[in-house]
Amino acid sequence: MHEGLTSIEPYAFDYCTGLTSITIPSSVKKIGQYAFQNSSGLTDVICYATLPPSCSSNAFDASVMENATLHVPEAYIKLYKENSSWSKFNSIKPIDGLEFVNINGICYIFSGNNAEVSYADEAYSGDVVIPASVTHNSKTYNVTSIGSAAFYNCSGLISVTIPNSVTIIGNNAFYGCRGLTSVTIPNSVTIIGYQAFYGCSGLTSVTIGNSVTSIGNYAFYGCSSLTSVTIGNSVTSIGFNAFSCCFSLTEVTIGNSVTSIGYSAFSYCSGLTSVTIGNSVISIGEAAFYGCSGLTSVTIPNSVTSIGNYAFYGCSSLTDVYCFPENIPSASLSSFGNSTANATLHVPAASLEMYKETYPWNTFKEIVALTDEETAITDIEIVQSGKSHETNVVYDLQGRRIAKPTKGIYVINGKKVLIK
User: Fold this and answer.
1) 50 half-sphere exposure, CB direction, 13 A CA radius
2) Is 136 helix (H, G, I), strand (E, B) or coil?
3) Distance in angstroms (rounded) separating the CA atoms of residues 180 and 103
């Protein structure tokens, strides 16, 4: 099976009686029921997944679990032995050729000239500083990745310093690190994996480096103390439920390189009051902002062509939607639901009548033309409070002149500016 495979379907190898060995790649997250039933010839199951895949209790024959040997990465044997499905294997041994070494309290896996931070039998705690390189047996290795489940459920972890040598933060890397309060993701990182910071309920701030291209599914799910996030201009995709249930999140700026916002990406972010969507987003996914009951203002750029079902459903505080496409985006009644009851829709003057005649856009309480100042808005610039706007005339999104702008989104010299 190839690396990148995420699931083994039910009955996939049922009645493969001649099968004696199976190798499961590290990318697999789920094994369906009866996947290896009646494959009684199996003597070795080699699983490279660091976090035990979700596995149906009847995926393997009872005789296989009794007589076959399960081979897993050495540092993760404890997790497999504690898992209700995988612990049924009578024999669980480390995979040959994978060397795990503890250096100064951090466990590593070595491959070629690179090192990966891995799970340790004794949970990491306190302040952890990951070096850019480590030396073992007189050879120096570059630390290039934080492996899957490396800090899994390390509830005593307070802070972690990630060096500029790291390019990948793996799946479940910081899953359940409830004591982690802040993290800076350096510019070297390109991928934030599936559930990388899932359930980090103490995390209050996160800085995502300028090289990150992908934010995985559930990456920051349930980070209930997270108050703000800026998604840089290198990110192209935001995964399913990536920031769902981040109840304290109040503002989101989505960079201009993002093309799609995944299913339920910001659902139930009840503290979110405003969101600005970058100029490259084509589709807003189903339930993307579902249940964001504090959301009052949304800016939809002219690049958007479709808005999924329930995308803004349950956004009961919505008062203004600034919709820039002249060609009306496809949407359904459920895209906004009853969120349109008290909201004003601002649209290009040239398309005003079309919006008024098109369902479900005509369900908004009021539909008005965008002002000249609003239609002049292009890219989003981010500045610090008290800096570049000091000598300029500042307007809010309703076109009102503001003498002393505080934090928020404003129009300065025809550009939308986020003052932080």
Assistant:
1) 23
2) strand
3) 22
Over the stretch 76-114, which tens digit does the pLDDT of each residue have?
888 899 898 999 999 999 887 777 889 999 999 888 899
Per DSSP, the three-state class of 271 is coil
All CATH 3.80.10.10 domain ranges of the chain, comma separated, are 7-94, 151-375
Report the distance separating Cα 28 and Cα 403, nearest Å. 56
Burial class (CB in 10 A: 0-12, 13-18, 19+), 101: middle
Residue 375: its H or E element = helix 372-375
Taking a C-beta distance cutoff of 8 angstroms, is the pair 183, 209 a contact?
no
Cα 341 to Cα 108, 362, 398: the distances in Å are: 56, 11, 19
Q: Tens of pLDDT along 214-244?
A: 899 999 999 999 987 878 778 888 999 999 9
DSSP string across 339-374? GGTT-EEEE-GGGHHHHHHSTTGGGSSEEEEPPHHH
Q: Which fold has domain 7-94?
A: 3.80.10
Closest by Cα among 315, 307, 292 to 260: 307
- For residue range 329-345, what is the model confidence (pLDDT) as tens digits? 999 999 999 999 999 99
Any idea which architecture 151-375 has in CATH?
A: Alpha-Beta Horseshoe (3.80)
